[in-house]
Amino acid sequence: MMNDELKNLGHMTPPAPSSESRARALSLAMQAFDEAENNLGAPQGTAGHRRQSSIFNRLWSPIMNRKFLAGSALATLLVLPAAAFLSLELARNGLPVATGEQQIEVVGKDASNGSETKGAIAAKPATDVAAEKQVTPEASSTVAEAEAEIAVKRETGMVTDDAYGIVRERHAAPSPAGGIEMLAGGSAIRSMPAPSIVPSDVMPPPEENRDRFTSGETNPVKSVATDPVSTFSADVDTASYSFVRKALMAGEMPDPDSVRVEEMINYFPYDWPGPESESEPFRATVTVLPTPWNANTRLMHVGIKGYDVVAATAPRANLVFLIDVSGSMDEPDKLPLLKSAFRLMVDKLKPEDTVSIVTYAGNAGTVLEPTAIRDKAKILAAIDTLQPGGSTAGAQGLEAAYDLAERAFVKGGVNRIMLATDGDFNVGPSSDEELKATIEQKRKSGIFLSVLGFGRGNYNDALMQTLAQNGNGTASYIDTLAEAQKSLVEEAGSSLFPIAKDVKFQVEFNPREIAEYRLIGYETRALKREDFNNDRVDAGDIGSGHRVTAIYEITPKGSPAVLNDDLRYGVAPATQQADPVEKSGELAFLKIRYKKPDGNTSSLITTPVTEDNAVPSLQQAGQDVRFSVAVAAFGQKLRGTDAVSAYPYGSILNLAASAKGEDTYGYRAEFLNLVRLAKSLGAE
């Protein structure tokens, strides 16, 4: 019956369209459109309490919202291994990595198999998280209840994950340095800082430099009218040059206090004429020449050469190697280099010479009793066993070394302790004065002390100088194996076999000819005028074949370079003094006082300096004289001496290059490179 009615309706004619109905429908449509447009910012849904949906959706939605955290964790476990691998590959290939988000590594256990899993996810910015937490007014009451429950737990700082039984603490602002958040149930979240790229031009902070040097003012210009006599001790040390070289090679200008100009000059071998016999321990050669950095002054150059003892006639040597094996020596340029240096020295000694080894680090210990060089294998094996560790009990080591030296003492021979250290005496009696007193006392018994310095950053040069000067020894600084070869092998005779001790120099200038003078270097070796004739005053030693050079810058009378005015009161002008000696044409008078190695009374050598010692131009001076003057200029410039401030590195380089001469070991070629480095570092 229903079908018949439908068929009848199908055959009926539809009513004609009504313009009134069309207008009403169009009006309702436009009104609905306007209302929809005004409500675009509102969430979807109805004005009621819940969305229009099926009964299925109404049941499923609360379940999913309550299990939200479990679902998120499961998704994380599935997705994160791939994400971590992709991030790792991006970082390895140098591709851009987002740095605005913090990465979090998730460490947990899979609920299905109990295995531990890891992943890395990017924590979203706080603004994004806040947006996701918003709940619309149209949301269902079930969802609202679930969200309210989570919100309460967030406010208390805890969030519960029902699927894993995990209580996880949330932090408002994870540390940028990263960290680990422990979770109940054996899981954890490790927060990691976002990867960042360190700019290539950012250098790491430099390490603290604790090198210590004796500070001293550069020698001043002195007036001959008031202070005509200059007195100083001989200095054959070379440590300063090696330290300057190490600094420049490291790309740094050296500490001005580390620059001792006389040690830089005396580093190089010069061919000064030597004495003809052992009865005359050394000979002085004086040259007066124009000053390259001041046209109105002159240089008085004094070169001294010691008598060269033939190796076959050298006395027996009793050496004690006192070696610092403290923790501070655990660097490639310290203990390893030290061991190589002593191996070279052992090869240089004669079969009847003896060597002992004492180490100190916390406590002093004897590694090797006095052993003859003929048993070289035993000595080298003892050197090879040295290992660093502990603090530096230097004073205890000195006592043990002196005990061994006394037990193996060679009468009429060489009895010397060779102290090798970075100079860090930080345990026990460590004041310079206490150590100095001990060394002075032992020196009187015929046991001398030499020092070999190693390393930078903790080098106590001031103490090393004190020990060597008061131990009648030399101070060397070993920065390379080549320097060890030079100091301990090529110049072993000079270092080990003294030909004179307590060597002092004194120069008196003629006020009729010289107005002012300035001693270049020797600031730490200055003596009082009365000390020259006092045999109780200690001074430096000169070894076999040693060369000592001293240079004065002198200002002639009437020169425009004179800095001091004549006195209104006091000494009468030189023109009113008719002393025959003053009229003799002498510029100065050089005196040298010395003692024999086993003597206590000094002897005197004198040399007058006249115009006969002068050359009219710098080019006419000897090759070695010109090269040593270039080294003197370089050392003064590194110290910041005002006298050479206007003399550029380029001029020093040209002067040294023109006087390079025969350079068997390459020392002078190396010097030219150091001048170039200083020129570059000084931005000149």
From TrEMBL:
Residue ranges of every copy of the VWFA domain listed in the record: 318-496
CDD domains named in the record: vWA_subgroup (cd01465)
UniProt KW Calcium keyword: no
PROSITE patterns xrefs: VWFA (PS50234)
Keyword Transmembrane recorded: yes
Ranges for region Disordered: 1-21, 196-225
Record-linked InterPro entries: CLCR, Uncharacterised_YfbK_N, VWF_A, vWFA_dom_sf, YfbK_C
Pfam families per the UniProt record, alphabetical: VWA, vWF_A, YfbK_C
Keywords recorded for this protein, A-Z: Membrane, Transmembrane, Transmembrane helix
SUPFAM superfamilies in the record: vWA-like (SSF53300)
Segments forming a coiled coil: none
Residue stretches spanning the membrane: 68-88
Gene3D superfamilies: von Willebrand factor, type A domain
Protein name, per record: VWA domain-containing protein
Species lineage: Bacteria, Pseudomonadati, Pseudomonadota, Alphaproteobacteria, Hyphomicrobiales
